[in-house]
Amino acid sequence: MGRPSKPLISRSATIAASIDIIDTEGMDAFSLPRVAKQLNVRTSSLYHHFADRRELMTEVAKELMTEAKVPEYTVGTDWADWFVDLSLNYRDAILRHPNAALVLLQFLPRDVLAGTYEKCARILDDGGVPANLHVVILDGLEKISLATTLTDLMRGPVDSREVFPNVDARRHPTLTRALAANTWSSRELFVVTIRGFLSGVMGLVTAPVSDRSLEDFIGS
């Protein structure tokens, strides 16, 4: 389809309209014709800025992630605390757009976060974290943050203490006791999970895993 010679809308307006539709009507309602209707233009006008739906979705994912504020960092800041704050901001950005969460899973290109990852790597460096653990931490935090937040959205309501619904006390007595003993909300469990992950990775500094034992562990 040919592109119009003069743009009738801006790229940013198209992205904003897409997010609004997804937020209010859900992903099932999203389409290029629906976005065009929202902007009161022809669908062909969208092709001045975006080659196809996938390119628009990628830009939507980028825009959503810019809402995740990167915390300030100064010398002396505890690096683990900083990463907990960053992960919480990432989680909060996703929760502000629950209908768009799957867009991040499918369309978020890592290159949009390269600048943030560079800053993260420098902070790990400053914190004395060995370089060979940087990728483990950065990759793991991204996966944990996205997966746990998506799980919370699917479970709902967010920050409920009902972690595992429909548990039968007679059939699942041990799990029932565990749930009764849990005092953390979903947000608090998220923080505990992040801190536990960071602590576990840092345990490799004092108890390093040999290449051979690691191969055995992962089944290579």
Automatic annotation (TrEMBL):
<feature type="DNA-binding region" description="H-T-H motif">
    <location>
        <begin position="31"/>
        <end position="50"/>
    </location>
</feature>
<dbReference type="InterPro" id="IPR001647">
    <property type="entry name" value="HTH_TetR"/>
</dbReference>
<dbReference type="InterPro" id="IPR009057">
    <property type="entry name" value="Homeodomain-like_sf"/>
</dbReference>
<keyword id="KW-0238">DNA-binding</keyword>
<feature type="domain" description="HTH tetR-type">
    <location>
        <begin position="8"/>
        <end position="68"/>
    </location>
</feature>
<protein>
    <submittedName>
        <fullName>TetR/AcrR family transcriptional regulator</fullName>
    </submittedName>
</protein>
<dbReference type="Pfam" id="PF00440">
    <property type="entry name" value="TetR_N"/>
</dbReference>
<dbReference type="InterPro" id="IPR036271">
    <property type="entry name" value="Tet_transcr_reg_TetR-rel_C_sf"/>
</dbReference>
